[in-house]
Amino acid sequence: MSIENSTHQRILALDIGTRKTGLAFFDPRTQCTVPLPTLSHSSSEECVQAVCSVIRDRDAELLVIGMPYLPDGSEGRQVRHTRDVVRNLQKYSALPLEWWDERYTSWKEHVGDSHAAAACTILSCWLEQQTQ
User: Fold this and answer.
1) What's the rounded Cα separation, in Å, for the pair 103 and 105?
2) Contact at 8 Å (CB) between 104 and 69?
3) Are 51 and 25 in contact (CB under 8 A)?
4) In CATH, what is the architecture of 3-130?
5) Would you say 64 and 11 are in contact if contact means Cβ atoms under 8 Å apart?
6) Could you read off the pLDDT of 77-112 as tens digits, one per residue?
7) DSSP reduced 3-state for 110
8) Helical ranges in the chain per DSSP H
């Protein structure tokens, strides 16, 4: 996907966890990435339903999903969980999605919501990579 196309879309980034999921949103009108309130959930299904609600509310056109691979690139428990959640999400949403290897995505400690900060970093790095 070219940056020209991606900067004209409303993009929702997800940093999926087992109990909390960080969200960030890119709005093409402002060309800014902003953190959204972190979702707290007790199950994958609850997470999926909450994400679907945000997709509808924000009229998102593309999802960017952070993939927490292990340092050697292999898939651990958290990657398997992320894939399962996304598989369930795809039952309710036909949005295109992009995966982002978040192993080398680092973010500084933020005062406030670290999950949303992680999602912002994932989305900002993904957008930056589109320009290269």
Assistant:
1) 6
2) no
3) no
4) 2-Layer Sandwich (3.30)
5) yes
6) 999 999 999 999 999 999 999 999 988 765 555 556
7) coil
8) 3-6, 44-58, 77-89, 114-130
CA–CA dist 66, 79 (Å, integer): 9
Question: What is the spatial distance between Cα 22 and Cα 40, in angstroms, rounded to a whole number?
Answer: 9
Q: Give the total residue count for the chain.
A: 132
Give the model confidence (pLDDT) of 12-27 as tens digits. Answer: 999 999 999 999 999 9
Domain extents in the chain: 3-130
Euclidean distance between CA atoms 125 and 132, whole angstroms: 11
Alpha-carbon torsion angle 48, 57, 10, 69, nearest 10: -20
Let me know: does 73 contact 103? Beta carbons within 8 Å: yes
Q: Produce one character per residue of 29-60: b if its CB has 16 or more CB atoms within 10 Å, e if not.
A: eeeebebbebbebeebeebbeebeebbeebeb
